[in-house]
Write a structure and sequence with these properties.
The complex is a heterodimer of chains A (211) and B (182). With 211 residues, chain A is α/β, with parallel strands linked by helices. Chain A has a single domain, classed as Alpha-Beta Plaits. Chain A is built from 8 helices and 9 strands. In chain A, the strands form 3 sheets. Chain A has a 5-stranded mixed beta sheet with strand order 6-1-8-7-9. In chain A, strands 2-3 form a two-stranded antiparallel ribbon. Chain B has 182 residues and is an alpha+beta fold. In chain B, the strands form 3 sheets. In chain B, strands 5-6-7-8 form a 4-stranded antiparallel beta sheet, with no helix packed on it. In chain B, 16% of the residues are buried. The N terminus of chain B is likely disordered. The chains are: A alpha/beta (211), B alpha+beta (182). Chains A and B meet through helix 2 of A and helix 2 of B.
Amino acid sequence: MEFFIDATRCIGCEACVQACSECDTHKGHAMIHLEYIDRAHSVQTAPIVCMHCDSPTCAEVCPADAIKRTEDGVVQTARKPRCIACNNCVLACPFGVPKMKTEFKLMMKCDMCYDRTSAGKRPMCATVCPSQALFFGTRTQLEELRPRSTPVNHFRFGNQVITTKVSMMAPRASQAQYVDVTSAMSEQTIGKNISLNVLMDALFTGEVSNE
Amino acid sequence: MSEPDREQVYAAPDGKPQSEQPRWRKDFPIDWPEDNYVARRDFTKFLVLTSLAFTAGQFWIGFQNILRKRRGEPPLRFIADAETIPVGGAVTFNYPDEHDKCVLVRLDEATFAAFSQECTHLSCSVVPDPERDCFRCPCHEGLFEMATGRPVAGPPRRPLARVRIEFKQGGVYASGIQERTS
């Protein structure tokens, strides 16, 4: 059983966020992130759960040795007696997964619903996702259901290549070796130019032109 | 059984094998089972060192006991003439050292009692309160019985240290101090 994320299928219904806050390992606190890709121009959203890296950057930067990974490769919430709430992991995680809960002085993060997955059940978010953007199952199941996609679990952030336990779906035709996550940061989207013009017009004329 | 028998899943960020990694990576492993793993040698070291510390502690206690016995009893010291203290009256004095405040009270014609003034809660000075027949500590309203020094109210749990008194030719003398735990 593996976790597969296909952000293109996400419809932004927030069912996963609600389900996440009902998980018994962090009851009442949703650990999933549901992000808008480009809020100004699109309603496209993407769910982000912990990718459970082979070499977890959050644990690498932890000065208190608090972030540990269990035998099955699941990176857990920081251990309470050790966590000093320094925020290093929050800043370091390439996927932006850890959440600093200042009320508990503790970093908390998605642990793939450890109480459920360790007992052979699916995580909360995957059970409720109506479009199955969050899919938890075997690779054979996935190939049957989605013949045109292929899972990728290598990501590149600048010079850092990360291999993860959780996979993201990419089109099978593209033959992607890895997902270059930061590549989009240097590109200027067309939408941004348009919005900039509109804003500048409004600034100088006092109203948005209708042309 | 020198290594935990589990598959090595951890890969260091530089991708080099475990043997080429610096020592601290072994000392601060990221994987939970390795973090919890205690080698037999480490456990034995812990046991030996702790029992050694306990043994040294026992010797230290014995040594302190010998020192205390050698120091002997504090000297006899004159407090006041019995005649000068009225019934219900009190006299303060310092015993055994200059900074140890004590108080002598006359309970009735024939009975005297003397206690250290140091409250057993937080060492404030207790004062006699004849109306309630008690020593009262002004800091936290602790009360001690005047005749015995036992705590009756407030935070203190131990009785006041009793000063042994002797009578010689009409004078009251302090002859020793007795710390009590109950």
